[in-house]
Specification:
The protein is an alpha+beta fold. 18% of the residues lie in helices and 31% in strands. The protein is built from 13 helices and 50 strands. Strands 3-2-4-10-7-8 form a six-stranded antiparallel beta sheet, with no helix packed on it. A hairpin with a 2-residue loop joins strand 42 and strand 43. Helix 4 runs parallel beside helix 5, helix 6 runs parallel beside helix 8 and helix 12 packs parallel to helix 13. The protein is globular, with a radius of gyration of 28 Å. The termini are far apart.
Length: 808
């Protein structure tokens, strides 16, 4: 099979204008407009509105190419024009002939062009305005969806977030976003190739399902190479199996290694000529979801190689609203941050698009289990015959593309639709509810059973299994919990629940000041300014942040300080949840917080902002997702008071320590704790030796702290292995705003590739920064107990060192 990319000599124009401009393919309309000086960056200030207006027009792309008379394409039995992503409503013309009208950016489109090929060839694509399209379709059939999006967005199979979300702009880009090529086929090619794994008695048997187009009686041979490059099966017939007696198993991050085998399948005709090749890397593992009944209801957890793992990770959204800015290096950097923060799971949210192949390749290499939503989210869809045909083709395309990946842990039908459609939200009644059930509980599971029977299918997130049966049930399935944030509940509210798997929960913060500066002018840098509110898509969010801040910290005196405290709020909110649910391992088996990343510079729930800067939450995640963790369930002001003026019983003060071991090995550990004053002097202390079995949670007895002064004493605690501290933390019994911090006289010095921080007193949430806010460190936003700490510099230049802590 021959593949010839058609990426050169492209030009583009707005169709109401005559001027043509150079275009980049793969690329997007917005990218080409910016490259040609026809558009400002849509992320700056309120340029989003101008960018949205530019999508009121149609755009035309064209290119030409020459084929020599002896070009081998002319000798192929078929020649296809292949588009891997056209976004979205388009007309495709080849040598003046209309080939088709693509209408789904999530699909691959192919058109037969052999009879049209000439020496001189022209390719032309017209992209129609997505804005006009959804407006017209909405008039015909006003089905609804998320109120944060443009009306009519469910009517187009285009990444929904492009029309807005409560963290994203309305910037519905268009264009040829993935490769376009001519594909020459001799006789036939693979329609699909599927690798099955049978794990038994410590061995693995590989079998193969090879299908070619036309179902010709041709031979497929298979070569399997182990992770070290040794060929262990050499061009065997695909009807045979490969027996692996000592398989190297693939494990999620933190549970083992990620060895990858290479499978190469060659489709041959009767003469032995190779007609097509399928070559991918696979990992040897079993992966499913356990829903065993237990004393609490029904568990929900990933089971890998027979081991029940506790999912730790975050929800991934598209990395940019302008997809040409996403590349392999940027994706690898983001996912490597996840691995280094002890993630073992990533949920690909259903309002974006199916990521590029390299996303999953990197997850395979890093050991990140992928919860993969199908691309349906927060909307109502009418299941017409045309729509059904369209989405079935979409799912088949992407399942066949992705099903071989070791990291693929779960197919999920949609995001939040069982929950809201079941409540008849967005006008979802009668036939629309019926259409929902047909799609996610009949069509898709039936299709997945055929196309990828070895990967678990789950109808929605959240769900208890389908049928609108209390989809956010605490005791079954996965749950989304938003009462901390949307419901204005205190952080301790997490402790009222024991969700089986929490796949969404979050809290907002502002990005770094240097990130804010990329889209603002100095006069904009107030969170209630017009420009800042344009970059805050949740209408109530700034007020919520300030409300929670008023309960926790003293009033910030600058934007810089406000950003710092907002990030600490976010980090503590998620920490409270994760630590609580990890302490209840067995009953809860997953915490996947909302959200990992941003698609533009914005105030949001992300732990890594658009510019790649780690917020405090990402550093906290590195600590609270540590495989071996000590945490503290304290009692104090936060769980017993709303106001300092409450007339109530005296505040109970106590601590209850817990050690969670999410590794495959038992650990001999030591727990230490200290009651201290504000200068970090020890008033009382204790210690206990502990054996933590593999994959276990271990409670220590509650310790009464009634002797502690509410405003002047705090508790520090550490977990040691072989005499070294591997996890630690501190807790207050009152809000930080009421604690009487002593000046810690923070000092910082540079020693080689380390920054040494010291304090003379208790320093809470110590932040280290350079002039550009782009230091990536081994730790940050940590507590010091009148001590010294060495921090490795991972990346960034130390031009100046700035340090601060809470209350000073």
């Amino acid at each position: 099979m021959i593949t010839r990319n058609l990426h050169d000599n492209w030009t583009m124009r707005r169709m109401d204008q005559d001027n043509w401009y150079k275009a980049t393919v793969p690329g997007t309309v917005y990218t080409d407009l910016m490259n040609n000086g026809l558009m400002e960056d849509p992320y700056y200030r309120d340029n989003e509105d101008k960018a949205l207006a530019l999508m009121e027009y149609d755009y035309e792309y064209k290119m030409s190419f020459t084929l020599e008379e002896a070009d081998e394409l002319f000798l192929c039995s078929q020649v296809l024009l292949r588009f891997e992503m056209l976004d979205t409503i388009a007309d495709v013309y080849f040598n003046g002939v209309l080939l088709g009208n693509p209408c789904n950016m999530h699909r691959t489109y192919e058109y037969a062009v052999k009879e049209l090929l000439k020496a001189e060839n022209d390719l032309r694509i017209v992209f129609h305005s997505p804005n006009k399209f959804i407006r017209e379709e909405f008039k015909k059939d006003p089905v609804l969806g998320s109120e944060d999006c443009s009306k009519g967005f469910p009517k187009i199979r285009k990444a929904h977030y492009m029309f807005g979300w409560d963290w994203g702009p309305r910037i519905p880009d268009a264009g040829i976003m993935r490769p376009v090529s001519l594909v020459g086929i001799n006789e036939t090619r693979f329609e699909s190739f599927y690798v099955r794994q049978d794990h038994h008695n410590g061995c693995v048997t590989l079998s193969f399902d090879a299908r070619n187009e036309g179902n010709y009686n041709y031979i497929t041979t298979v070569t399997v190479t182990d992770p070290q490059g040794k060929v262990i099966a050499d061009e065997i017939n695909s009807n045979e199996t490969v027996e692996l007696i000592t398989p190297q198993l693939w494990w999620p991050n933190g549970y083992g290694e990620q060895p990858l085998y290479t499978v190469k399948a060659s489709l041959r005709n009767a003469k032995g000529d190779v007609l097509d090749v399928w070559e991918k890397r696979i990992g040897l593992r079993t992966m499913t979801i356990s829903r065993e009944k237990d004393e609490y209801g029904e568990e929900f957890c990933h089971v890998v190689n027979g081991v029940k793992i506790f999912a730790m990770g975050a929800d991934y959204i598209p990395q940019d609203n302008i997809l040409s800015r996403v590349n392999k290096e940027r994706t690898r950097t983001l996912l490597t941050h996840c691995k280094n923060s002890h993630f073992n799971c990533i949920r690909v949210w259903g309002g974006g698009y199916y990521p590029e192949d390299e996303f999953y390749d990197i997850c395979d290499e890093l050991g990140l289990v992928v919860w993969q939503d199908l691309m349906f989210a927060c909307a109502v869809y009418r299941l017409s015959e045309d729509f059904e045909e369209n989405i079935i083709a979409e799912v088949i395309d992407n399942v066949r593309r992705l099903r071989h990946h070791a990291s693929l842990g779960l197919w999920c039908g949609n995001n939040e639709m069982e929950l809201f459609v079941g409540q008849e939200h967005w006008g979802a009644k009668f036939t629309l509810k019926s259409d929902y059930v047909k799609m996610y509980e009949y069509l898709f599971p039936k299709l997945l059973k055929k196309e990828d029977p070895q990967t678990y299918y789950w109808p929605a997130s959240p769900s208890s299994g389908g049928g609108f049966d209390n989809p956010n049930d605490e005791n079954r399935g996965d749950a989304h919990y938003w009462e901390v944030w949307h419901g204005n509940q205190p952080f301790t509210a997490y402790r009222q629940f024991h969700f089986r798997y929490l796949s969404e929960f979050g809290f907002q913060s502002f990005p770094a000041v240097k990130t804010i500066e990329t889209f603002t002018e100095p006069e904009d840098r107030n969170i209630f300014s017009y420009v800042m509110e344009k970059h805050q898509r949740n209408s109530a969010a700034n007020g919520k942040i300030m409300n929670y801040m008023s309960q926790t910290y003293l009033y910030p005196e600058s934007l810089d300080e406000l950003v710092y405290y907002s990030q600490l709020l976010q980090a503590d909110a998620i920490r409270y949840g994760v630590e609580h649910f990890r302490r209840n391992r067995g009953r809860c088996m997953g915490t996947v917080y909302w959200q990992l990343n941003d698609c533009w510079p914005v105030a949001s729930w992300a732990s890594i902002d658009y510019e790649g800067r780690w917020k405090a939450l990402q550093y906290y995640a590195k600590r609270f997702f540590a495989p071996v963790l000590i945490s503290c369930e304290e009692r104090g002001y936060l769980d017993q008071r709303v106001s300092v003026n409450d007339d109530a019983d005296p505040i109970v003060k106590s601590i209850k320590l817990n050690v969670q071991n999410e590794t495959m090995d038992g650990k001999d550990l030591e727990v230490r704790w200290q009651l201290r004053d504000s200068k970090a002097a020890v008033i009382e202390e204790g210690k206990k030796e502990l054996y933590a079995a593999a994959l276990s949670t271990n409670w220590l007895d509650e310790i009464n702290m009634d002797q502690a002064d509410l405003h002047e004493n705090y508790v520090s605690y550490q977990l040691l292995e072989d005499g070294n501290v591997i996890s630690e933390g501190t807790v207050l019994f009152c809000p930080p705003k009421h604690f009487k911090f002593a000046d810690p006289h923070l000092k910082a010095r540079l020693e080689g590739d380390e920054i040494v921080i010291s304090s003379d007193a208790y320093a809470k949430s110590v932040e280290i920064r350079n002039g550009n806010d782009d230091l990536l460190l081994s730790d940050n936003y940590f507590d010091l107990n009148a001590s010294e700490k060495r921090i490795k510099i991972i990346s960034g230049e130390v031009d100046v060192l700035r340090v601060r802590s809470v209350g000073i």
